[in-house]
Structure formats: C-alpha cells, structure tokens
Amino acid sequence: MDATLRVDATTSRDKLCIYRVPRYLQENDKKSYFPQTVSLGPYHHGKEHLLPMEHHKWRAVNMVMKRTKHSIEMYIDAMKELEEKARACYEGPIGWSSNKFAEMMFLDGLFILELFRGADNDKGFLVLGYGRNDPVFAMRGSMHSIQRDMVMLENQIPLFLATKTDQLEIKISLENDNFFNPIADKDKEELHCLDVFRRSLLRPSQKPEPRLSRTRWSWKRRAADKRQQQLIHCVTELREAGIKFKRRKTDRFWDIRFKNGYLEIPKLLIHDGTKSLFSNLIAFEQCHIDSNNDITSYIIFMDNLIDSAEDVRYLHYCGIIEHWLGTDSEVADLFNRLCQEVAFDLQDSYLSELSNKVDHNYNRKWNVMKATLKHKYFNNPWAYFSFIAAVILLLLTLFQSFFTAYAYIKPPS
Question: Could you list the residue ranges that cross the membrane (predicted)?
Fold first, then answer.
C-alpha cells in the first residue's frame, strides 16, 4: 500500500522508459518478449524458471564485496535514495516495499555491471576472480542467452542505478563481439540496456535528424494495416522493372541508398536471436514517445522487399542477407510477421525519400518494358543467340524481298 501511494503521488511521467509490451504485439509471439534465463527489474522477478540465476547474482555480490571491502548496506542505502526516480521509470505501479525494491535494484544493477566489466576483454572475468569454466561469468555457456534477455523491453533496470553503484557511464558497443562495453559518454543519458543497444545500432548519425514531433503519434496518421505499410515493392518486382541490387560496404545495416539504378543495402546477418531483438526494438519505438522509428522503418522496408523465399535467395546471392536459419522461407516468414500489428506512419520514415526515388524509377515505362523483355525472353545465353539468329534471318528475308520487288519494278533492260 505504501509503495502504491508513493507511485500515485508521483505525477511526472518524464522518466517513463520501461514498458509492458503491448498486447497487440504479443499476440503472434510471446516468447520473443519474455526472458528465458535471467530476470532484470520487477516485471519478471520471481518467475520459477528464472530463479536459478538469482543464486549467481548473489555470487556476483559476494565477489564484489570481497574485492571492494564494502558493505551491502552501503549499496542498499544508495538505491533507496533513487527509489522514487527508479519507480517512475516503470509503466504501472510496482507494489513492493521500499526494502524489497531497493534490494532487487541493487542485486540486478550489480549483476549487470559485473557482466559489463567481465566482457570488456577476453580475460575480463578471469581478472575479476571468476574461474575459466564459470557457468555464468565467462564468455561462453549461458552468456548468449543472458545477453539476449538483457535487451528485452520488459527486462530492464534504469542505468542510472548501475551508474550510482559503480560511478560508471555505460555504453554498449557493437564493434566488440562481447557487445557490452563500458565507455564514458557524458553527453547522453542512456535509459537502459535496450536503449543503449539501440543507440549503438544507429550510430554514427548520418541520417536526417530524428523526427520527435509528438503529432506523429496521432492514430489517424499511423497505420497498423500491412497494406498501408508499403514503402517499396518486393525484390522480384523491382528486378522486373530493371532495378539492380548490390551490397553496400558499411557496418551500419540501416544505411541504404539508391544510386544509378542500384539499390545498395548493407549486409544483414540473421540468427536465432534476431527476431527477439528486432521485436523488442520495435516495441520500444512503439511505446517511447521520445524515440524515433528508425529501426521500425528499416524492418518494414525489408519486410516490403521480402515477399518470398525467392526474394531472400536473391538478396543472399547479392551478399545482402546471410542467415543461420534453416531455410530461406523461414527468413521471409520472420520479416513478414515482425510488423503485422505495428502502427506506422510512412511519411515519418527516414527511408521515405529513398522509397519515392525507387518508386519513380520503377514506374518508368521504358524500364518496365526492358526488364520484362529481359526477364521473359533473355533470361539465358541461348536466348541471345536465338534473338540474333532471328534478326539475321529477318534481315536476309527483307533483303530478298527488296531485291525481288526491285527487279519487278525496274526490270533489267
């Protein structure tokens, strides 16, 4: 009761950044949004299948206390100082006592920091005192599933708690395979792991400035109907209109361009965690008022391009898509399901201008005619030989007809 009244008294929602995934997004796939290995924050705390990791969190606490010679009480007291601010980050009241909430935030925050420190280099966990074959604190074993859970929207704690705990600024780096890398950045206040991960995906910003106008959240302008989310035609249709594809050599997967008839798309690696990651990034952009929709725009763009396994196969041939899934059909199905219920304003996409250019090129009649001829009649080398032979035969026939007619009109004297 005390905790509920405290939350109700907090009228400001400016700190809100950790949300429940909307039900309309969960309908097709709940597994992508719910942690399988570790709970972080209050939403999934105490669930039976996540309880084994609680033991390892306390192992981390004991290791840190041993290294720092500090008392747990000092950290708990620091968490209590930030309790009201932390509660304001969550959607809906957290009906926990002050002591329980502070302990959970301390435990989860320290666990995250220990993972950051250990993943900083190949020997990070060894330096911290963990064994080479540690089941959790090693760059092997369960680390992959832990990292996947750490970027789920409902499985977050505010990063200012971790900063308070260790006075570190946290940033996630994709350039490092470990993907969690503590780096100081005084200019930005990261909200939580998912937010930092998203920012690292979109950095450096060579795109138009984020469109943060709140008018874009009007439901009159945003469509959840996939038929109204058409940024671009599919690969097969674009090829038939003469548009070519090639891989763009950059590590920024969203940095697509259209130049000289070529749609240049950076390489995208798709693995078993891609669906969950993209789903949670989309959910965050759908929920957070101060977020742009760049990840959602990219995914809808790719969904438009990929209608079938044939489209995936051609993008793979061009070096644009690499995947570790079973079949090309699974990749097509992944993209086709990701944005089924997503509300999206086409005009608010950073790819809208590029899409208009491609569409203008697509609608040129001469391009369509050339592509149709090439696709239907010149799709193998023998077709060219047959065409040349037919042209030669036609010319010979014309010459013969001409000379026959000429001899009739002007007979030799």
Answer: 382-409
Q: Is residue 180 one of the residues assigned to a domain?
A: no
Which regions of the chain are under pLDDT 70?
1-12, 166-188, 204-229, 365-391, 394, 398-413
| Alpha helix segments (H runs only) across 96-192 | 98-118, 124-128, 143-150, 159-166
DSSP code at position 20? P
Rg (CA), the chain: 29
Q: Does residue 133 belong to any structural domain of this protein?
A: yes
Can you tell me whether residue 270 is helix, strand or coil?
strand
Q: What is the 3-state secondary structure (H, E, C) of 209-250?
A: CCCCCHHHHCCCCCECCHHHCCCCCCHHHHHHCCCEEEEECC
Dihedral (CA of 376, 245, 364, 305) sign: positive
CA–CA gap between residue 23 and residue 30 (Å, rounded) = 9
Supply the range of the domain harboring residue 106. Answer: 2-166
Answer whether 0.90 is exceeded by the pTM. no
Residue 412: is it exposed, middle or buried by C-beta count within 10 angstroms (0-12/13-18/19+)? exposed
From 137, 166, 195, give the residue that closes a domain. Answer: 166
Tell me the C-alpha to C-alpha distance, in Å, between residue 306 and each of 202, 243, 291, 312, 313. 22, 15, 26, 6, 10
